Every structure is written in C-alpha cells, then in structure tokens.
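Example for tutorial group B:
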C-alpha cells in the first residue's frame, strides 16, 4: 500500500531538483493536452505552475509542518474557485468539472514528487492525460451501452464485488474439497466472460471481438468460457461457428498457460518437458486458427443484440463444478498414489493449473521423471478437453456442437499421437 507519510528532513539539493523537474514535466504533459483542446480554465502554463506549486507545498510541509501543506492546498483551491467565477461571467461558460478535477489530481501529484513517490506521480499523471484524451471514445462507448447492458453489468458487480468477498475462502465438506469462494468464483467467471465476449463483439466487431474474447477466456478459464458460450449458442440469432471459434481459441490458449507454469515451476528441466507440450500447443493452435478462419470466410459472426443473461445457468454450472470436485476427490481417495495417470486425468477434468504446477514441482525436487511428468500433464490436458466436450454436448445447440466437437476431436487425436509416438 502506498504510504505518503511526510519525511522529517528535507532531501538533498540534487534530489529536490529531480523532484521539481519531474513535477514540471508532468504538469507540461497534462497541460499540453488541455491546451490542445483549448480549455479556458487552465492550459499548459497553468498546469506546469500548479504542479510546481504542489511540489513547493510539499517541501514547505516537510520543513515547517503539515499545516503549511494544508494552507497551500487551500490557496490552490481558492485560485481554482476564482478562476471559475471569472469563467461563469463569460458568454459560454464551461459547465464541466473535468479540468478542475485534473488540476486537483496534478497538484497532489506535484506533492508526491517531493515525498519520495516520483514513480507513482508519473503513473498518475500519465493516467490523467490518457483519460482526458479519451473523452470521445469513452463517451461513444457509454452511448452504445443500453439499459439491458447496464443491468447485466450490475448483476456482475453484485456477484463479483458483493457476494464473492463475503464467502469463506477455505475448504470444507466431503474430503475437504468444497471451497465456497472458489466455486462462486467460477460462477462470476462465467457471467463475466460471457458479458466480456458480448461487449468485445459489440465494440470491436465480430472477427476481432471473437479472437480477443477467446484469448482472454483461455487465460482466465477455458472451462467457464466453454460453458458460457455453449449456453449462449441456445439463444436465437447466435452463430454457432463463431462461438465455436471462440471456444477453440480459449482451449488452445490453455496450453500457453501450461507452458508458462512449467517454465516457472521447473526451470531446470525445460529441454525435456517443453518440446512435447509445445507440439500440442502448436497443433491445438492450428485447429483453433482454422476454425477462426472458416468463421471469417463464412462471414458468420454472433449477432446477439442484447446482453446474455447468464446468472441462472452460471449458478447451475457452479453446482455441477462442485459435484465434479467431490467426484475427483473420491476417485483420488480410491486410487491412491498407484494410478498417476488416472489421478492426472481426474485432476485435469476441471483445472489444469493444479496438475501442471504439482507435477512440475515434483520434477524440480527429483521425485518424478520428466518423461512421466509431461505425459501426466498431457493426459490432464486431454481430460480437460473431454470434460469441456461433455459441457458442449449438454449445454450447446446443434450448430455449436458440431464444429466444437470436430475441433476437440482433432486436438484429442493430435494429443494421443504425441503421447504414443514421442520418444
């Protein structure tokens, strides 16, 4: 957490000069944007001066006490009020408060530069400039968000920011595998990914939106993405091949995450473990790319005009996910440590991270051979594809099931060949 306690002694002269130069540069940066839009309240010189004033206020606060900094802030606020009074007398007064709020933030950034937080001040000033320059895109985006979109966003906020933090984050229940926080997190992911895919296609267009939705879905949770898109495929107006392409992209991205986890958990064994996993990632990527290209050629994109209402189906999937966790735990309890590949397949049904990280850790501690380790990870990945295929069949429409199962089938065939033929 950022601490802004006022130092008890002044920095040396070079340090102070660097802080003043940083404050001046940040003020000029934001002032340039305000000057370009011809703001009548403050321009490039005003912003440069007010950030320098903030830095001077910080120095005086260090030297003579916090009350001096408070007085500097009051003086700054008074100048802003006087400037607005003059603005109100003009024929076309500016009724917005954007420039005034930017001035307040930049004054505070100027103070931060002399309190030892120059990096934070630079980040804040850069964010301010981006927000000021993004006025038209942000306003256009808001205008395109309808009442139904806003309702679904509110539901996501309720599920993710109100209910989720209130749930206990600990294992309980049968065999200690039911974590209410983790289970509800899957519900939030399904709702969030479905809404994100809809918004991506709405604002970016069908082709780019589909690819981006698949990429982020795979990085977050390909299982939740698959369940969400399968449910969406039942809605009238949805295009099965487009949703199938997103699903296959998300599933292919899973192996990118697997490779990253292996590199982190077993860095000394990459030469033995990475090549077969890279081959699987490359093959699955080709399958996903082919599906995406086929979707582009057909010109078929999801044509949903209203946001997906996923909360009820997401809750049902959360219950299914909990049942699978219990079944996985029971199978592990039954098989014990004798069936490594069985345990890998069961673990990979719902989550690839656990089997990848645990197996890589065993390799790094010399408790497992690399040949066995990568094959266990591969078996877990193939089991994950099978589980998602079951979700597709149970939740998806026929136009969605056929292309997804064709892609999954090709991916599974490639994975089995790698398992059997890799030396």
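The residue assignment follows.
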């Amino acid at each position: 957490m950022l601490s802004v306690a006022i130092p008890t002694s002044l920095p040396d002269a070079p340090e102070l000069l660097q802080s003043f130069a940083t404050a001046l540069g940040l003020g000029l940066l934001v002032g340039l944007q305000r000057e370009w839009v011809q703001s009548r309240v403050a321009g490039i010189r005003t912003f440069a001066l007010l950030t320098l004033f903030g830095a001077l206020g910080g120095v005086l606060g260090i030297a003579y006490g916090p009350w001096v900094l408070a007085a500097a802030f009051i003086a700054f606020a008074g100048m802003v009020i006087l400037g607005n009074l003059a603005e109100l007398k003009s024929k076309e007064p500016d009724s917005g408060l954007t420039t005034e709020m930017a001035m307040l933030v930049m004054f505070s950034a100027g103070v931060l530069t002399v309190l030892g937080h120059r990096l934070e001040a630079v980040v804040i000033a850069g964010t301010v400039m981006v927000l000021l320059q993004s006025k038209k895109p942000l306003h256009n985006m808001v205008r395109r968000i309808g009442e139904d979109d806003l309702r679904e966003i509110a539901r996501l906020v309720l599920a993710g920011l109100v209910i989720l933090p209130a749930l206990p984050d600990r294992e309980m229940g049968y065999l200690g595998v039911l974590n209410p926080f983790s289970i509800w997190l899957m519900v939030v992911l399904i709702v969030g990914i479905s809404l994100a895919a809809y918004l991506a296609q709405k604002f970016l267009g069908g082709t780019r939106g589909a690819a981006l939705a698949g990429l982020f879905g795979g990085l977050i949770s390909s299982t939740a993405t698959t369940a969400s898109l399968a449910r969406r495929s039942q809605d009238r107006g949805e295009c099965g091949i487009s949703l199938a392409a997103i699903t296959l992209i998300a599933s292919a991205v899973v192996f990118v995450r697997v490779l990253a986890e292996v590199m982190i958990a077993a860095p000394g064994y990459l030469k033995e473990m990475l090549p077969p996993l890279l081959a699987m990632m490359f093959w699955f990527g080709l399958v996903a790319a082919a599906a995406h290209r086929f979707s582009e050629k057909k010109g078929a994109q999801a044509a949903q005009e209203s946001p997906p209402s996923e909360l009820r189906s997401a809750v049902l999937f959360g219950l299914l996910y909990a049942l699978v966790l219990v079944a996985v735990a029971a199978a592990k309890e039954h098989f014990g440590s004798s069936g490594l590949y069985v345990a890998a397949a069961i673990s990979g049904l719902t989550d690839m991270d656990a089997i990848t990280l645990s197996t890589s850790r065993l390799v790094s501690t010399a408790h497992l051979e690399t040949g066995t380790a990568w094959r266990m990870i591969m078996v877990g990945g193939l089991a994950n594809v099978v589980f998602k295929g079951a979700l597709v069949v149970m939740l998806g429409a026929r136009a969605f099931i056929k292309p997804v199962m064709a892609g999954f089938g090709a991916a599974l065939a490639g994975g089995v060949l790698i398992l059997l033929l890799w030396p």
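The longest helix spans residues 270-298. Compare this with the pattern of hydrophobic and polar residues in the output above.
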